[in-house]
Amino acid sequence: MQLVTDHHSHIIPGIDDGSRNMEMSLGMIKQLKRQGIERIAATPHFYSHREPGGISAYLDRRNEAYYSLLAQAPAIKDIRIGSEVAIEKGISELDGIEQLAISGTNLILMELPYAPYADWMGEEIYNLYCTYDLMPIIAHLDRYTEWYGKNDIEKVLSLDAVFQFNAEAFDHFETRRFVSKLIKKGISYCFGTDTHNLSDRKPNFDSITRREKPGSGLIEKSDSIMDEFALSEKPLF
Ligand SMILES: [Fe+2]
Prior knowledge:
3-stranded parallel sheet; alpha/beta; 9 strands; 8 helices; binds fe (ii) ion; 6-stranded parallel sheet; TIM Barrel
């Protein structure tokens, strides 16, 4: 069943610079529900260089907070756990990296550095794809227009990946044009709010629905991604 999906969010309490506590998390989820969201990928940041205990320590922390959130009966039931994995040198060889995929899918959300594009970044993404059969979702491509030239964008687009756009891109003429140009090219894409809190980065899926003509299929195509890359066996989490 196709569900309106937020593919990128920081709603797990106390794990990263997103939701600070349970109350905030439940409030964010309530707002997302009001905006029509039926399924959320919860994707707290993972920075390999900040995790001395490696992936297993991070997963213990993340999963404990995730299950406590689910135990509070949040307004949206279908919350998949994943991570927003910072692309660092050697990330594709990190032990257990495949466990950071969005539960029930072979999708993994990857965040490019906020720096000029370099070929090693694409190589890390390609290695992940080849080694683990993981389909990378490149996070908020709309946020890199100030770092990347046309050629860099072309290089990123040539990667076998799904490209995620933040809802905020629809609020500004330039980024909206950038996103719609790429969508018209026929790329594989999905939308997310990347919400971090209830103030300056609050849930804003309505930035898309306010502008999107009903029936154009733009949101529906985004919503099909999780089903397209669903694992056939039961999710681990
Ligand atoms: Fe994010």
